[in-house]
Each structure stands twice: as C-alpha cells, then as structure tokens.
Amino acid sequence: MNGAHDLGGMHGFGPVEIERDEPVFHSRWEARMFALNHACGFHGKWNIDMGRYAREQMPPAEYLATTYYEHWLFGLQKLLVEQRLVSASELHSARPDSKTGEARVMRVSDVGSYLRNRLAARLDEDVPPRFTAGERVVARNINPAGHTRLPRYARGRCGMIHRDHGVFIFADTNAMRRDKKPQHCYSVRFTARELWGPEASARDSVFIDLWDDHLDPA
Amino acid sequence: MSDHHHHGDDRDREHDRPLSGPALRVKALESLLTEKGLVDPKALDELIDTYETKVGPRNGARVVARAWTDPAYKERLLAGATAAIAELGFIGRQGEDMVVLENTPKVRNMVVCTLCSCYPWPVLGLPPVWYKSAPYRARAVIDPRGVLKELGSEAAEDVEVRVWDSTAELRYLVLPERPAGTEGWGEEQLAEIVTRDAMIGVAQVTVPARTRR
Predict the structure, then answer these.
(1) Are residues A209 and A159 in the same domain?
(2) By the CB < 8 Å criterion, does B154 face chain A?
(3) Least CB-CB distance to B125: which of A15, A24, A151?
(4) Is residue A21 part of a domain?
C-alpha cells in the first residue's frame, strides 16, 4: 500500500540525530510493548508479514506523528481483534469478557528457544529462478492497496540482478492471504542516477531485495 | 484492572507520575491480555531482559574482530555469513539469513530499511531510534552522502557508496575497514573499538586517542 511507512526518498524530515549512549528502551512501556508483541505472536495467529501490514495501516498523519512502539501498539491491537484473540469491546474497556481457551501461552521457559528458532522465510522448495545474476530487470509499476515490499521509489526503475538469495516466502501474498507463493528473492542493484536522476552521484547505487513477482526482464 | 505487580513496573521511569498516552494504553493492554490468560508477564520480563542485557552490538563487534584477525574466518563470513556468525553462537530471530558487506578504501556500504526497521538483532541487538525514524529511512537512499557527511563520516568523491535497503528477510552487517594503528592488536582489544554505527555503515572505526601509542 502507498502508506506513510514507505519513506524512501522523501524530503523535509530534518537531520538524522544519533543519541549518545542510547538505552535499549526509552521507557518501560516501550519495553512492555516490544515484549507483548512477541508474546502475542507466539500464539501463531499471524505471520511477520501480516504484522508489518497491520502497522502500515495506521493512518498516514498518525503514523508520522507517533513513535515506533506506538506503531507496534496500533498493529498489535488490530491483529488481536482481527484474529479474535480479544474482542473490540474488551479492548475498549480493558476488561476481559471471558478467559481465553488458547493453550499456547509463552512461558519463561519458552523464551530462549523462541528467540533462537529460525523463522522459515527461506524455503526448500525447488522453484526455478526467473533471473540470473547480471541480468537487466525492471521493477514493476504496481500500486496494490495491500502489502508490498516493493518500495515506491523503485517502481518502474531498471536495475541489475546482483545476487540470487534463493527461494523465500513472498511477503506480499503471505501478508494478505497467508499464501507463501515460494519464489526467488534477489538483491537488485539500481544506480543512484536511475532512481534519482542526473544530479545523483554516478558512482553510487541502492541494492533492494525483490522477488520474482516484483520484476520483469528489462 | 489487575492488581498484580510485576518486575517490569518496579523499574518504571514513570513510576511516581501519572501514566499518559501510550504508557497508559500499553499498561491497560498488558493487564487485559494477562487476565485473559494470553500472556505471562514473567515471559515478558525475560524477553526484555534478553535484549537489554544479553544481545547487543558487542556480538557484532566480536564477529568483526574475528574477521580482522583470522583471514580464513573472514573468507567464510563473506561467502556464507549466517553459518560463520553462528560459529560464534549468534543465531536466531531477525538474523536467520545474514549477508556481510565488506568496506574497502574504495567502497562504503550503508544499511537501511525504508519500509519498516529491519535490523540484524542477533549481532546488533534492537535498532536505535535514529535508524527507525523518518529522517534516516527517507534520506539514506536518496542522499546517502549527505547523511554520512552530517554524521561526520564523509565519503570521498572517488569512493563508491552502496546503500542496502532491507526489504526482504535478509539482514545486513557491514564489515568496516580495520583502522591503521591497530597492528598487533588482539581480537578482544579490536572488538572494543568496533561501534554499532560502523556496523550499520554510517561511521568508520577509529582508534580512540587514549589507546593510541
């Protein structure tokens, strides 16, 4: 979706400010929010792509006016209701109507293995690649209302396959209908001039990870 | 609201002040989810403790220092980063498929996630605020040289700048150049000077004045 999350290439946000000796969390609610997101994800009701899509749906003005963990709060509340772990009225009142029947609650003893386990984004499926390293490609000009990992600034631009990462879950369909649609994911090199015009550096480039379904032969 | 009192609240910075905005809403959500039996507050404490005390950029610094001192390791790291990083015990969530980018005198690499905030947790911990914020996500791809200059790490005209937008499940770690003046240093001493920002690619590793000989 063409949301406020797709920030690449925008102007006007001001300087990048690095905070010295920054704490991992700036307040306890950020830490609790971080942990709640993982503990709720542990129920297995949604995948990481659905999680990103939920956060992207925060209204643009609100997204830009709030902090990172507020985006997480918005996304988690949305998923909890959509996936029926809590009801909208429970969320509103902050009082439970009933105890859950969910059996898979994350306990302290689960945390270690949960964090060490590999998420299966890379798949073993034997899917032939549509492109090979060195091949010229064009990123499709698509504007889906749903989730996509093809950023606006690359759409319609020509690049070159830098490297084939192998077969991965396709985030765009996995977010919308839990369809993994296994396909190759590539690192695609776009020159800075192709993306930003003749005033950009002739030396520089941006590498974007894109899937078969984002690309056509150039 | 629940009257249970857990570990996290003991350290709450807002402890003696009324909670407002997101702090209040997150507290209400945690109470609801706990009472419903969907989350266990002790597991939340454990998740938080892991990223506050156990996982962070010191892990990545060890990978870099090993690569600087062990050519065979460096070769493995550049050829298959996930397995080479796992040799040091750093595996798991948000580091499932790692790629290491080598800086040279002629190439500077810089990592961003314009769409969200993808970041290699097992080696760098959780991302800093600036990495997740609009200015960096907006500007890293269109004006990388401006960002580097602003951060005091200007790239010379004859250096190629490569920006890596983490749009899939690959996670990137920059292998910075080993600074001059560190000849003969051991792995541990080298790891101490490797910074988080150098491994994201917005700084270079320098020898602090106090350790210069």
Answers:
(1) yes
(2) no
(3) A24
(4) no
Question: Is 0.95 exceeded by the ipTM?
Answer: yes
Measure the CA–CA gap between B199 and B148, rounded to whole angstroms. Answer: 14
Q: Which domains does chain B have, with CATH numbers?
A: 8-53 (no CATH), 56-211 (3.90.330.10)
Residue A188 belongs to what domain range? 136-217
- Residue A122 has a CB neighbour count (10 Å cut-off) of 19
Domain count, chain A: 2
- Return the residue of B nearest to A24 by Cα: B52
The model's pTM is 0.94
In this structure, the answer to whether residues A35 and A105 fall within a common structural domain is yes
pLDDT tens for residues B159-209? 999 999 999 999 999 999 999 999 999 999 999 999 999 999 999 999 988
Nearest of A184, A63, A39 to residue B36 by alpha carbon? A39
**Is any Cβ of chain A less than 8 angstroms from the Cβ of B2?**
no
The tens digit of pLDDT for each residue in A191-201 reads 999 999 999 99
**DSSP alpha helices (H): ranges in B95-170?**
121-124, 129-132, 134-142, 144-150
Is B113 a catalytic site residue?
Answer: yes
Nearest chain B residue to A165 by CA distance is B170
Q: Which of B113, B133, B153, B166 is catalytic?
A: B113
The domain that holds A208 is classified in CATH as: 2.30.30.50
> CA of A25 to nearest chain B CA: how many angstroms apart?
8
Strand ranges (E), chain B: 97-102, 107-112, 160-165, 170-175
